[in-house]
Amino acid sequence: xxVKLNVGGQVFVTTKETLTARGMxxxxxxxxxxxxxxxxxxxxxxxxxxxxxxxVLNYLRGSRVLPPKNTADMFLLKEEAVYFAxxxxxxxxxxxxxxxxxKGDHVLVRGSKFTIMAVDRTGYKVTRLGKYxxxxxxxxxxxxGVEVGDVVMAWHKPSNKRKPGICMSxxxxxxxxxxxxxxxxxxxxxxxxRF
Length: 195
Fold this sequence. Notes:
Blueprint: E1 2-7, E2 10-15, H1 16-20, H2 26-32, E3 39-40, E4 43-46, H3 50-60, H4 72-83, H5 87-97, E5 106-109, E6 112-120, E7 123-128, E8 131-136, E9 141-143, E10 151-156, E11 161-171, E12 174-179, E13 185-189, E14 193-194
Parallel strand pairs: 1-4
Antiparallel strand pairs: 1-2, 3-4, 5-6, 5-9, 6-7, 7-8, 10-11, 10-14, 11-12, 12-13
Helix pairs in contact: 3-4, 4-5
């Protein structure tokens, strides 16, 4: 179904599928439910800035491109993401402007623990048991820590490399790690332990 939107005097033509593809948001609700939206020449009128709205519509069309960090366009888009209830976009912009986590932080995502190795525009590069993954900034990421029973990669001094093991105890920033095989146990500083 074709949908015509008059945003601040500029007409945008899109589809119902585009406006609803990213879940519930103000635009999806506006076209799917009876509402008091004002129609001008058969177009839904939205009193917002058309220059910024093009970023919103491109996002709904599947674009991952955003304005440059710390520009007026980025901050205006953040306001529009909140206004149109585009939570994933709002979270992504917040991550770009002010990331919540930094390199070395331990995080929990969908029940699995990871260690952040790098922060970029799209999210976080993380590691878990020697494998690397990319986590989107739109994910629900929570802070966590190394606990007794966690399977980790820790710095094994005798072999001068990271090895898999299990956290046996914690004492402040010191973790006692039982390494796999015949590598024994060793105390490791928290900075030498990652998921």
